[in-house]
Amino acid sequence: MSQLILYYQPDCHLCDEAEELLHVSGLGESYLRVDIETDLELLKQYGIYVPVLKRTDNELELFWPFDQAELAAFLETNK
User: Fold this and answer.
1) Which domain holds residue 12?
2) DSSP 3-state assignment of 75?
3) Fewer CB atoms near the end CB (10 Å): N or C, the chain?
4) Where residue 20 sits, what CATH number does that domain have?
5) How far is CA 20 from each of CA 27, 53, 65, 66, 67, rounded to the nearest angstrom?
6) Helical H segments across 1-79, by residue range
7) What secondary structure letter does DSSP report for 37?
8) pLDDT tens digits, residue range 13-67?
9) Overall domain count for the chain
């Protein structure tokens, strides 16, 4: 499986929902959590979009809102 990064902000209920979906989908702790508030460039890039899930193998990003089916399709994409 590819390396996954979840871009999030503290106290973000949408980020909490995305994380819960990742856990329900069996991804558990197999992703890296990155707080965008710790990096000005990430804050500029993702500030209004978090949560965002990124694959490092192909640089694809999945922006919230997404459901379990969209997450599964995102993980299977081979672009």
Assistant:
1) 4-76
2) helix
3) C
4) 3.40.30.10
5) 10, 13, 13, 12, 11
6) 13-24, 40-46, 68-76
7) G
8) 999 999 999 999 999 888 999 999 999 999 999 999 999 999 999 999 999 999 9
9) 1
pTM strictly above 0.70: yes
Query: What confidence tens digit (pLDDT) does each residue in 27-41 have?
Result: 988 899 999 999 999
CA distance 12 to 60: 22
The 3-state DSSP class for residue 46 equals helix
Measured over the CA atoms of residue 59, residue 27, residue 43 and residue 37, the dihedral's sign is negative
Structure-token pair, residue 53 = 């899930």
What does the alpha-carbon distance between residue 56 and residue 64 come to, in Å, rounded to a whole number? 18
